[in-house]
UniProtKB/TrEMBL annotation:
Keywords: Cell membrane, Membrane, Transmembrane, Transmembrane helix. The chain crosses the membrane at residues 6-26, 38-58, 73-92, 104-135. The keyword Transit peptide does not apply. It comes from Candidatus Paralactobacillus gallistercoris. The lineage of its organism: Bacteria, Bacillati, Bacillota, Bacilli, Lactobacillales. This is MgtC/SapB family protein. Its main location: membrane.
Length: 225
């Protein structure tokens, strides 16, 4: 019986790590503040807390006048994850609230960890697949909506100097974005906050532009208007 429990716990831990890693990988590819490690730790921690909540006090159940509620410890995850999620929500220099989706994703990832820790493996796996589908499908629909417009604004955190900003604009014009226009909004500690206005004609154009900007080591953040 003990061996069966040990194997179940080990499986739960590794499944929670895997599910968290898959969710975090998608977020990290989108240059979000919470990536693979954060999501893996959230799902792992939630699963561990659920396991502890279920099994850690089994040895005292035979005592008289002792009653335990196994949900009390696990319930603290729901409120505690809010503090972590709040750290991913920021108001950018462009007065844009960013990070709500990532914060919600962390909250749902904690729920996945709780489900796995509670032995609801199928539910945890299906929920992980659902999260990934929401991230990818809805993001694709949002991009399609944006790229059907004549123009769009991107806000960039750029580490460099004025000549390198001009070089970025020139390179964009050479990469099939002839109307690319970069404006400097502010500068703090050698970090320039830029607005890039550019016209994209298709979803492929948007993907190409986003990939090009994401691969630039001087660009540390990309926000859509």
């Amino acid at each position: 019986m003990q061996l069966h429990l040990y194997l179940q716990w080990i499986f739960s831990v590794f499944l929670a790590i895997l599910c968290g890693g898959l969710i975090g990988y998608e977020r990290q590819n989108k240059l979000k503040s919470a990536g693979v490690k954060t999501h893996m730790l959230v799902t792992l921690g939630s699963a561990l807390i659920m396991i502890v909540s279920k099994y850690a006090f089994m040895d005292v159940l035979h005592f008289n006048n002792i009653s335990l509620d196994p949900s009390r410890i696990a319930a603290q995850v729901v409120s505690g994850i809010g503090f972590i999620g709040a750290g991913t929500i920021v108001l950018t220099k462009h007065n844009i609230i960013d990070g709500l989706t990532t914060a919600t994703g962390l909250w749902v990832s904690a729920a996945v960890g709780l489900a796995i820790g509670g032995g609801l493996y199928v539910l945890g796996i299906i929920s992980t697949i659902g999260i990934l589908l929401i991230y990818t499908v809805v993001s694709h629909l949002d991009r399609h909506k944006i790229t059907n417009q004549t123009g769009m604004n991107l806000f960039l955190d750029f580490v460099g100097n004025v000549p390198s900003i001009q070089e970025l604009q020139d390179n964009l014009k050479e990469h099939n974005y002839p109307d690319a226009d970069i404006s400097i909004l502010s500068c703090h500690d050698k970090v320039f906050y830029l607005r890039l206005h550019v016209t994209v004609n298709s979803d492929h154009d948007f993907k190409h532009l986003f990939t090009y900007l994401a691969n630039n080591p001087q660009i540390h953040r990309i926000d859509l208007e």
